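Notes on consecutive records. When two proteins share a document, each keeps its own sequence and its own token line. Never mix them. Below: protein one.
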Amino acid sequence: MPITLPESLPAYDILAREGVMVMSEGRAARQDIRPLRIALLNLMPHKVRTETQFARLIGATPLQIDLHLIRMTEHQSRHTPAAHMAAFYRPFADVVTAGDRFDGLIITGAPIEHLPYEAVTYWDELRRVFDWTQTHVHSTFGVCWGGMAMANHFYGLPKHDLSAKAFGCFRHRVLVPASPYLRGFSDDVLIPVSRWTEMRQAEIDAVPGLVTLIASPETGPCLVEDAAHRSLWIFNHFEYDSDTLKLEYDRDVAQGVPINVPMNYYPDDDPSQPPLNRWRSHAHLLYGNWINEIYQTTPYDVAQIGRA
């Protein structure tokens, strides 16, 4: 089954050319199916690139997905055309006013790791988003900074600055192979990492109920389940395209920013060679498992989401 997207959304044509099943809103409305309502709160500067990455992953399951794009109410994007934002994104305040409920919500990362949470201009509203998920979202997926921010909001867990950027593709171990989110996973997984901060395993372990599902001896905890808040946090980037780390590396080199060649990414660590994508299959597994778990547990009546 396909993911439902507006035909004028750039991701529609991109994913259709890749062979991902996409469906127009008009065609979806004629099907007698209750699609899963999945929202994406996109905090990344390049909205089109990020929305396409996540649409690709959640659109590859056998279920019909109705994707909704959300932005922070007052924050204005400087890297995405205003016309795109006006056409496809709804401010969070409008979502609240409408009383919308969602089977799933993805909260992306943001390139603001260096800032204390309280210094982020939309921090107060984001905290309202986190609280709103407890009554209006069945399952929430916080990605990178988005996951760190959820950990801080609900449990006061801090993020810690790294002396050097964790940058590249790192081996991770599956710690809870019986988790429904890790069905089909290999014991050892390669995952792209790109961050200047970290969460510490000892601090996560000190919170009853938090379970680390995937971790790396080099870059620490990666995927954490918070069952009490019906959420997952992932501090790394399964959603990345093959060239995402390359684009970040080339940008920093061009700007004279000290940066190491991303580890275990280019063949023979040679930036002149095209990088190889060695995480795509597990990316689809993880997000497909998340969608399946939502489907198995969410109320059929959307109005009942968050009321149990």
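Protein two starts on the next line and is unrelated to protein one.
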Amino acid sequence: MKNRLAVGALALWVVTIAAAGFVFLHGDTAKAPDGRTAILVSPGQRDYVLSEMRALLVAVRDITDGVLHDDRGKVIAAAHSVGMAAAHDAAPALMAKLPLEFKRMALPLHKGFDDIAAAAQAGESTSALGDRLIGQMDRCIACHAAFRLRAER
């Protein structure tokens, strides 16, 4: 009897881990009418992601201004504000809904901003900092071309 219970518990554990792995990889998605992948989130989660995107846009503006006026302090502060530390604030329920490819795009984006801050601190030329920022914008464009958010009640 104990052996049967142990086998049942192990089987349940394996199924639970497999289901969690599936959700982690695929998230909660659907095909959008425009061909992109729609990420299905609650209205509050959609608001959270959109506010994070606005913060990224503000940081890009501030980095651009810092590069244009050779204000490394502004570049560093703006880049750090959306670096890897900002990526750790997402709720686990939201992270479970995001497909792996979205996560693969988001983490290098946040790390790239930390890299901009480090490069500015190291004295990299404003031209090179501008090129780094263009690379970050390319990441934004690729993500927006592949995904959209759809709030589900």
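For the record: The first strand starts at residue 29 and ends at 31.
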